[in-house]
């Protein structure tokens, strides 16, 4: 019989074991192996059954077992040592505390999803997993982060596969009382509630759940409370669900409600209100408008508040294609802005932030990425290649500037090694290398042999095989009304066969079925009698993406062929728990997106952390780190005539690599059965590549290159009651009004012979009209470099020209002079331009104003 309601009853833990409850309440257990070992000791079978979730686990442990442990002084001492270690971890100074007073006191990190543990399913894919790893690394480094997201009652979705291969979605409701969460409460015990005005004179209310991610508090807003009308209770029903208005409501709540939740949290805890706000994608863009509204309440104008808010805001884009950006109907956004949602803000000031460049206002959607970029003075992509893609994709916001001058940098993503490294590899590092830090261990040391690493890899492969068989057995029972799975399901995969993994979200550009371009050739690779290969594949298509579902169906139907079904499997319901066995269990991790549409692709990083070699298109992070030591590059057929030909050529290259290079290395063994050349690559991957891929490296970059400069700049702009912000806003308005009068009227050159040579000097004299501006408000520059047939300047360099100081017959122009030394041979080109100059501008392109010589 189906229950009408479900809730969680928590166990009564004996007071002698209070340390267990304290350890369970902090999500550090999700990556701290000593704590996990402690819980496993309580009941190994129950620990695995709970999905290694201490909250669920403590609710299921037999009371007699708890009483037994409560009388075990050795166990009590062990638990209290781990509790004391946790207390020290969250309170003692770490890396960040050595940086000095100029570092931000608090950084707010907003994301629509967070992938921290399978026990808290608030994520759909890479964006959320990256956010979770960001929090964990920030905690390890001592970065004073406060994170904000939404609590989705049904998470993303649970995936099942029908007998015909079609994806099916289920949305099981979560009980927050059974999760590692607590309600944020005031001193009198009443819950904190944030409220947003919405159209129709109504209000949207949200309570605030909080989770402890090590040292980092995570606030999650939840609208499923009695204070809301029935429809508004559903705003946080599921991640990326619903139509346009539903999604807009979620993003308004995340941005505006999130800032209000932080304000309440800051007041209750005494922690500093953040100096820096970091938007992980554009979903949280409305946080900037909420902060502007607060500044207006303090007496600033919209323009002045914008300058103050921008100075302390960082925006990270993860999107390599315009189709991946949230865009809302402009009239719909206006209806919310007109409802009293943001006191003091005139919709006429706010709506232009979401305008798409080159599109008339009446035809433009409200673009969340455009708003994010306009509200943030610092922005970045998530790999070097993605930074280049982003500068081209968003370049229209800075018209007249070349792509390499667009003010979007890059911080390559990283992964949290303690979360993703298998315990078996950790144990090997502890036993042989004397360290629990697998990321920085000396894997080239003779203290650990090839045979030992190979043995651990085989054990991790066996672990994956057993998990895959268990999952497929369960899926068979679900598909066939509880029927017992046939014998072949229990023979799926082989722990001694070369195992290739492929798991990710399933949009079309990731090309789930590229491997099926030549089904017969692929089948021959799988069933090669001497050098067989097996594939383990997983991934979810968005519920509204029928094309992605068709790709899954095609793959599943291929894998159902009787002669192949033990060599290729699709595992349903890809999540963190599956991933933590999948990455270590694979020998090779494959990634074959359409270049350059993979922003980063961190799954290959996690596999590398476990000694897997990468087989990938030169895209995302792999474009920076690819080397023979770490795997293989699938050649990109960019020059192909059409998409079909490109897929065919790249699939053929993929088959060649597997058949002729990868399988040979894996199956060529020494007399002890160890593939020595293969193991040399595994060692180099662990020793040299892993340290570059860590989330600690990523978070340090964010701190040093973005957070600290943003905090310092915000402090300058906000000094003396925001006097610099007021002055900057007035200056920006003045420059924008005067800019039509700026012109490079005439450029004279000299100093070169008829045939210029390297070392010659080009002398320039530019006549520039400044209109209502002064010489101190502009920079006049020569831009020069190689210039080829497309009339563009490549690898451009910039040198400033200086006022000549001599009089001119034309009082309307000023003369600027300078010299360029020709230090490179080849085609050469130059131009002269004028850009605004102000000490509080971070980039000369910041205002998107430039006047160049014709």
UniProtKB/TrEMBL annotation:
It catalyses: [(1->4)-alpha-D-glucosyl](n) + phosphate = [(1->4)-alpha-D-glucosyl](n-1) + alpha-D-glucose 1-phosphate. InterPro entries: Agluc_phsphrylas (IPR011834), Glyco_trans_35 (IPR000811), Glycogen/Maltodextrin_Phosph (IPR052182), Glycogen_phosphorylase_DUF3417 (IPR024517), Pyridoxal_P_attach_site (IPR035090). GO terms for molecular function: glycogen phosphorylase activity; pyridoxal phosphate binding. It comes from the Bacteria. The keyword Zinc does not apply. PROSITE patterns: PHOSPHORYLASE. The modification N6-(pyridoxal phosphate)lysine is found at residue 606. Its cofactor is pyridoxal 5'-phosphate. It holds the Pfam family DUF3417. GO terms for biological process: carbohydrate metabolic process. It is an enzyme of class 2 (transferase). Keywords: Allosteric enzyme, Carbohydrate metabolism, Glycosyltransferase, Pyridoxal phosphate, Transferase. Residues 13-120 form the DUF3417 domain. Belongs to the glycogen phosphorylase family. Phosphorylase is an important allosteric enzyme in carbohydrate metabolism. Enzymes from different sources differ in their regulatory mechanisms and in their natural substrates. However, all known phosphorylases share catalytic and structural properties. NCBIfam families: more_P_ylases. This is glycogen phosphorylase. It comes from Agromyces kandeliae. The gene is glgP.
């Amino acid at each position: 019989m189906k229950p009408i309601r479900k809730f969680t009853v928590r166990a009564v833990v004996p007071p002698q074991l209070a340390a267990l409850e304290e350890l369970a309440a902090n999500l550090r257990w999700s990556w701290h192996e000593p704590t996990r070992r402690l819980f496993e000791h309580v009941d190994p079978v129950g620990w695995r059954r709970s999905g290694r979730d201490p909250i669920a686990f403590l609710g299921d442990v037999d009371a007699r077992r708890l009483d037994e442990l409560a009388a075990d002084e050795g166990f009590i001492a062990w638990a209290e040592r781990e509790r004391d270690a946790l207390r020290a971890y969250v309170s003692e100074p770490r890396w960040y505390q050595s940086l000095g007073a100029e570092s931000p006191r608090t950084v707010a990190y907003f994301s629509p999803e967070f992938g921290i543990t399978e026990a808290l399913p608030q994520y759909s894919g890479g964006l959320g997993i990256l956010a979770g790893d960001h929090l964990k690394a920030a905690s390890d480094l001592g970065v004073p982060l406060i994170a904000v997201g939404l609590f989705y009652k049904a998470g993303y979705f649970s995936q099942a596969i029908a007998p015909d291969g079609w994806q099916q979605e289920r949305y099981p409701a979560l009980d927050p009382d059974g999760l590692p969460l607590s309600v944020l409460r005031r001193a009198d015990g009443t819950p904190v509630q944030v409220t947003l005005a919405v159209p129709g004179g109504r209000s949207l209310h949200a309570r605030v759940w909080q989770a402890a991610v090590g040292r980092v508090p995570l606030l999650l807003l939840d609208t499923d409370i009695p204070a809301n009308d029935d429809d508004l209770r559903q705003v946080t029903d599921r991640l990326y669900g619903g139509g346009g208005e539903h999604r807009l409501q979620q993003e308004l709540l995340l941005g505006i409600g999130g800032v209000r939740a932080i304000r309440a949290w800051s007041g209750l805890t005494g922690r500093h209100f953040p100096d820096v706000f970091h938007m992980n994608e554009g979903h949280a863009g409305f946080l900037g408008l909420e902060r502007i509204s607060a500044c207006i309440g303090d007496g600033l104008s919209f323009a002045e508040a914008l300058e103050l808010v921008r100075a302390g805001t960082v925006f990270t884009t993860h999107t390599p294609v315009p189709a991946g950006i949230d865009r809302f109907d402009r009239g719909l956004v206006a209806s919310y802005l007109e409802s009293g949602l943001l006191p003091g803000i005139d919709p006429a000031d706010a709506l232009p932030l979401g305008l798409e460049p080159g599109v008339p206002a009446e035809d433009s959607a409200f673009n969340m990425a455009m708003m994010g970029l306009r509200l943030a003075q610092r922005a970045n992509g998530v790999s070097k290649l993605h930074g280049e893609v982003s500068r081209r994709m968003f370049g229209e916001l800075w018209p007249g500037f070349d792509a390499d001058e667009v003010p979007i940098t890059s911080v390559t993503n990283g992964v949290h090694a303690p979360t993703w490294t298998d315990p078996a590899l950790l144990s090997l590092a502890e036993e042989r290398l004397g360290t629990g830090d697998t990321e920085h261990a000396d894997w080239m040391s003779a203290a650990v042999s090839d045979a030992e690493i190979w043995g651990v890899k085989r054990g991790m492969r066996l672990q994956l095989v057993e998990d895959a068989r268990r999952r497929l057995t369960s899926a068979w029972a679900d598909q066939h009304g509880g029927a017992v799975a046939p014998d072949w399901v229990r023979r799926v995969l082989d722990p001694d066969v070369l195992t290739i993994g492929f798991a990710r979200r399933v949009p079309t550009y990731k090309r789930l079925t590229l491997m099926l371009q030549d089904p017969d050739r692929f089948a021959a690779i799988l069933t090669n009698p001497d050098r067989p290969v097996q594939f383990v594949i997983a991934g979810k298509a968005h519920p509204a993406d029928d094309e992605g579902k068709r790709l899954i169906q095609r793959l599943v139907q291929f894998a159902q062929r009787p002669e192949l079904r033990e060599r290729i499997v699709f595992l349903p319901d890809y999540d963190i728990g599956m991933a933590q066995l999948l990455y270590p269990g694979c020998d090779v991790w494959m990634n074959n997106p359409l270049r350059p549409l993979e922003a980063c692709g961190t799954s290959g990083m996690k596999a590398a952390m476990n000694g897997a070699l990468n087989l990938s298109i030169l895209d995302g992070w792999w474009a920076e780190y690819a080397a023979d030591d770490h795997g293989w590059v699938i050649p990109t057929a960019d020059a192909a005539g059409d998409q079909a030909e490109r897929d065919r050529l790249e699939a053929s290259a993929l088959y060649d690599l597997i058949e002729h290079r990868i399988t040979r290395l894996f199956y060529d063994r020494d007399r002890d059965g160890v593939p020595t050349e293969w193991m040399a690559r595994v060692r180099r991957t662990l020793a040299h590549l892993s340290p570059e891929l860590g989330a600690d490296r990523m978070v340090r970059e964010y701190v040093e290159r973005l957070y600290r400069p943003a905090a310092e700049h915000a402090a300058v702009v906000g000094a003396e009651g925001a006097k610099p912000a007021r002055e900057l806003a007035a200056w920006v308005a003045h420059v924008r009004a005067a800019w039509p009068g700026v012109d490079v009227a005439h450029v004279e050159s000299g100093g070169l012979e008829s045939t210029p040579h390297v070392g010659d000097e080009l002398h320039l004299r530019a006549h520039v009209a400044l209109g209502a501006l002064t010489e101190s408000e502009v920079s006049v520059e020569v831009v020069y470099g190689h210039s080829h047939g497309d009339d563009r300047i490549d690898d451009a360099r910039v040198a400033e020209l200086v006022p000549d100081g001599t009089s001119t017959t034309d009082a309307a122009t000023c003369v600027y002079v300078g010299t360029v030394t020709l230090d490179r041979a080849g085609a050469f080109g130059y131009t002269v331009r004028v850009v605004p100059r102000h000490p509080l501008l971070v980039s000369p392109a910041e205002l998107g104003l430039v006047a160049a010589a014709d």
